[in-house]
Structure formats: C-alpha cells, structure tokens
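Predict the 3D structure for this chain.
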Amino acid sequence: GRHVTEAVKEVCMNLNSMWTNLGLKLKKIVQANESLAKEERQYLNYVFTASYYWQLILQGRENEAESSKESKYPVLRAALTKDQLRHCFGYIRRLTRKHKPYPHSSAARCMLYDEIMWKVIQKDGADHLDIMTAVSGKRKQLKLTGPFCYANKKKRGDVQLILDRDKKRLEVHRAIKAAVHDLHKSKKKKVGMDKGLATLLSCSSGHEYGFNFSQLVNAEAERINRRNTNRNEYIQAAKELRHELSALQAKLAIKHSAKTERRLRNRIGSLERRISRLEERHLGSKLYHRQHARKQCNMERIMNMSIRKMLLTEKPDVLVKEDLSFTKEKLPKAANRYEAKVRRKLSSWTKGTLDDRIEYLCDCLGIRTVDVNPAYTSQFCPNCGARFSERKGTHHELTVCPNCGEMNANTAAAVNILRRADDKNITLYTPYKKVEKILEDRYANKQSVMA
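Done. Predicted structure below.
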C-alpha cells in the first residue's frame, strides 16, 4: 500500500511538472505573438499560470469558474470583448493541443520512499540502506559505497532511489534544507498553532485539525500498559529462577560428592529449560515491538494528514508554534494512579514526532517556523486578558472567561501563541512564574485604565 501511494504521488508530481513547464513554454509563445492586444496578452499569461481556469477552458466549462477575492481572473476577463474572449479560448485550445507533451510508460528507473520506508543501519562495519519491499515484513539491505547525509535519524525525510543503467549503479537522492533569501519584503501571513492531545492542531483562524487523536493515543497507551502488566508475572518468575540458578552454580563450584554434584547439575539443567521456555513463549519481544510499530505507524499517518491539511488550508508564510519540549524536570511527579496514566499518555505523544513532522513539512513548502514560550497560553483570555475561570467539555476543550463568556480553549491558546511572537517582554526562555506575573499585571493595568 505504501509503495502504491508513493508511486501515485510521484506520477502526480510528474504531471504537475509537465503542465507547469507547458505553461511557461506557451507564455513565451504568447509574448512573441505581436498580433495580440495588450489585454489579450495579459489574460493569456494569467490563464497559463492558473491551472484551474486553464482546465475549465480546455473542457469548455469556463462559465462554471468560481472566482475568489484574491483572483485577478474576473478583472482580466472583463477587460476583453466577446470576440476577443472567444478568440482567446480558441487560441488556448490550439496552443495546448499543439505543444502538449504525451506521457509514456518506460522501464522503471525511479522509486519514491517516505521516511517510514527506509533507514540507515550498521552491518559488518559498513553503512547499509534498509528499505521496505513489496513483500509484507521483508526488507532489503543495500550497502552504501559513497558519502551520504541520510543517517540523521531525527529528520530523515523522503528519498528517491534512481537506477542509472548507463553507470550501472543505484543512486539515493534526497532534498536537503538550504538557505532561502527573501527578495520580496511583502507582508507575511502569520498563523498561530496550538498543539494538543484530544485535537491535534488548533489554529488562530478558528479551524482545528486532527479531531479525536487522543483516542488512538489512549488506546495504545492502555494496551501497552495491560500487556506489560501481564508480562510482569512471567518477568518476575524468570527473575526468581535466574537468582536460584546463579546460587546453584556458585554452590556447584565448591567440591561435593558425586551424588550431590549430579543432583545439582540436574537441578541447574531443569532451571535452564524453564527459563528458556519462559523467554520463548512469554517474554519474546518480536510480536510486542511489531504490534507497537503498527499502531505507531497509524498515528504518524494521521498526524501527517492533519499537518498537510492544515498547511494547505491555512497557507501561512510564518507558522508560530509553542515549544513543548517536555522533560522529566518539567513534568510533575505522579502522586496517584490518575497522574501516572496522564504521564503515560503524554510520554507516548511527546516523542518529538509531531514537532519534527511540522518542521519538515514546513521546510518542504518554504514556511518559516517560530517557537514561542508556551507558559499560560491556554489560561488567559486573548480578548480581555483575564484568567479563565473554568474548563468544560469531555477533553476540557471549552473554557469560560469572566468577561467574554464561553469560548474554545484551543483556538484561544492559538491566538495567544500568535501574539507572543511579537511580545518583547515574554521571550522563549522567560520563567513561567514571571510570565504569569506579567500577564496578571497587564490585566490589572487594563482594568485600572477602564475604571
């Protein structure tokens, strides 16, 4: 399934690239055509860069076009007469038919692999590329013979395997991050984003993505807990047997009669067989890790879908997010069973996967990310600055402000995160107690001014 997904993705990228190149080629032809009026040339140049209107014209459905406020299409179309417009439609169809490339199938030379389908491992003192094959559970290992920069486990990203038949070698290609210089100093769209457990992503625009993500995390955390609870009985039994075995081996080292030595050896053999049966039938880790990897892969899939949907819908130039780097010092110690359960769910979520995927996908789309201080972003109202009085809802997703009333706590936190990017008093490393005092003082000053 993953191979099919990546193959379809690669085909779509190739088709998009072909149409983009065709549009650039036709724009050059339009510029060289001196018989066109200025309004016609402007209209044609815009259509060849807007695939949506281009497709409708080719299909004869141009009247069904939906125009947005940001689109220049209605203005350019209104500048043309009926005859000019009809001439442009026919000209677009003729140019497209004449210069359109025709995709053709050939021997496979390229395969796309996402970051879950490959990794670099050490084997026999050399680096090997371990890739997923079409057979379930079977992987292939290829020895790397040249220098590479793919061994970063934290941010691996996608790679392409390209077969060079002339040079008789398999090449590994990967896009790397490069410095981008902003030549157009226009106003950039900033979006604040709050990361959660029940709802994965909440934006300052009021939209939320990744609903009910906590159900997957909770189910997996509880499954692992039950599995470990059942395994503890056998782990303890194996521990006691090993302790008895080491005592008998120490006793055997002392000189005994032949009868006593034979009895000790029989007992040691019996213990070794019992320990071996426990390890084989109850303490094996292959199925344990395989089941967890399958659940983890499903969570990462939903995580990737939510992040991609958020970025494509919001279309931010700058993404402001909170720095949720949980550590043992920051998390409270479990005083009761409920807190232990919460810590277990948090530990299964805060592995850095979410933050890594956000940064990787933002890099791919040229979106800059900014980390801000997360302290008290979900405890103060973004409108009036008052502290929220209570939290409601199944996952505490609703909150109540004493002045503004009920609101969504996640989107309110996203608005606070967005504003904190330009807050000079609250930096990324400001202590949380100082942050609380700053927010309370701001609200008190605001109230005194209003009074």
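The mean pLDDT is 83.
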